[in-house]
Design a protein that fits this description.
Layout (H helix, E strand, L loop, with lengths): L1 H11 L1 H13 L8 H13 L3 E6 L3 E6 L7 E8 L26 H17 L6 E8 L8 H7 L10 E12 L3 E3 L2 E4 L3 E8 L3 E2 L9 H11 L2 H6 L6 E9 L6 E2 L2 E10 L2 H21 L3 E7 L5 E3 L1 H15 L4 E3 L10 H4 L4 E9 L19 H19 L2
Parallel strand pairs: 3-4, 3-5, 5-16, 6-15
Antiparallel strand pairs: 1-2, 2-4, 6-16, 7-14, 8-12, 8-13, 9-11, 10-12
Length: 396
């Protein structure tokens, strides 16, 4: 009967879930700037008499539902709430009102679904077999990530969290479906900046200058060996460069060229070795051309590790809530998530909720100016998250 009650409450609150999502979508805020979003969340939690703290790890909020009981668990539910520096080109009536800022990764949906899940759980608080911690997290999109700030602020303590659950919208799956994967799910992500420094000058006299542009090209090509020749063949690895700035002109070679890219993988020992190879190859390639390469690698998020037991519990709960035909197995992704910080601390599960609807022409990818969701997914996600929390509390 508890499952049916949760489903009914999700339906009863569905209209407000949509309204909350649209308000947040219209008022997006960049990482570490989520002041208005946090205020909105806090007001909702106050309205529903859910105790909470604010200002954690920046603008983070942690709420708590349920009463402490001896030998009972605390399960955390997490949603991120920052937006991206993207100009929205959608034409629906609730487009972003903040120029150049857009919820293009679905964090508006994540927040609204967790708000409704919290409201549902508060309604059934006396039936919970433990406590539910609500983590509304800032700054998922920007290093070092808001999750790290939440952890450092003691967000997983007092009461201690035994398991943590997160969900993320997925435009590669139709609304109404969800997906799970145990083990290493999303990759680590480091940010690479290489500056090639030399003596530029007239392009017609290459013998009198350092060709920084040619050396930059050679460095990019030579660095492909990191994956093709040094990476363990059984460890997925991506090394990509998306930015090259050689600010010369037709006949001028610049003194400096900038290269920026990303390293992604699933093994911490290899991740460390790969960064050593990147520095060595870049520096030696530049040195061979009588130039200097300055390499800066900013350590990013580790890889997301989905605990086998926590993930199986969540998957079983989803099957019970939605039906087996609505639950799929996911493939590994080379994208990254700062939820990884939680998963490296305690047993965690991070799953995907489908948001696409081809008939409604809702199929744009994440981080694009036309990204949107089928709002029917909000009904699925809000109730399912509450139900997963209830089921997680029941099992060791």
């Amino acid at each position: 009967m508890l499952k049916q009650k949760i489903q009914q409450l999700a339906y009863d609150f569905y209209g407000e879930t949509i309204a909350n999502r649209r308000y947040i979508h219209q008022h997006p805020e960049l990482s570490f700037q989520e002041e208005n979003t946090a205020r909105f969340i806090s007001q909702k939690l106050d309205e529903w008499h859910i105790q909470h703290e604010t200002g954690l790890g920046g603008h983070g909020i942690i709420g708590l539902i349920g009463k402490p009981v001896a030998n009972k668990k605390c399960i955390a539910l997490r949603a991120d709430m920052d937006a991206l520096p993207i100009i929205e080109t959608n034409t629906h009536e609730f487009v972003s009102k903040n120029p150049g800022v857009m919820h293009a990764c679905g964090h508006d949906a994540h927040t609204s679904m967790l708000l409704t899940a919290a409201r549902i759980l508060k309604q059934i608080e006396d039936q919970l077999e433990g406590q539910i911690k609500l983590i509304f997290q800032p700054a998922e999109e920007k290093l070092p990530g808001g999750a790290l700030g939440i952890i450092k602020a003691g967000g997983l303590k007092n009461p201690d969290v035994q398991r943590i659950v997160g969900q993320h919208v997925f435009p590669g799956l139709d609304a109404g479906f969800v997906g799970f994967r145990s083990g290493a799910y999303m990759a680590s992500a480091d940010e690479i900046t290489i500056r090639i420094k030399g003596k530029g000058g007239h392009a017609a006299m290459p013998n009198q200058i350092n060709d920084t542009v040619l050396t930059a090209a050679q460095i990019i090509v030579n660095l492909q060996q990191v994956v093709s020749r040094f990476a363990p063949p059984v460890v997925p690895t991506v090394l990509s460069f998306g930015r090259v700035i050689a600010d010369g002109i037709f006949n001028i070679i610049p003194d400096e060229v900038l290269i920026q890219g990303t390293l992604r993988t699933f093994d911490e020992a290899w991740r460390t070795s790969a960064k050593t190879h990147i520095r060595r190859i870049a520096e030696n390639t530049a040195s061979a051309a009588n130039m200097k390469a300055v390499v800066l690698i900013e350590d990013g998020y580790p890889f997301v590790m989905n605990d086998d037991h926590a993930t199986q519990l969540a998957k079983n709960a989803a099957i019970a809530y939605l039906g087996a035909e609505k639950v799929i197995d996911l493939e590994q992704r080379m994208t990254a998530e700062d939820f990884a910080w939680y998963s490296q601390q305690i047993p965690a599960t991070f799953y995907r909720i489908g948001t696409a609807n081809a008939a409604k022409e809702i199929n744009s990818n994440l981080h694009t100016s036309t990204f949107d969701i089928d709002e029917e997914s909000l009904l699925t996600g809000s109730g399912l998250m509450a139900w997963i929390a209830v089921e997680q509390l029941k099992h060791k």
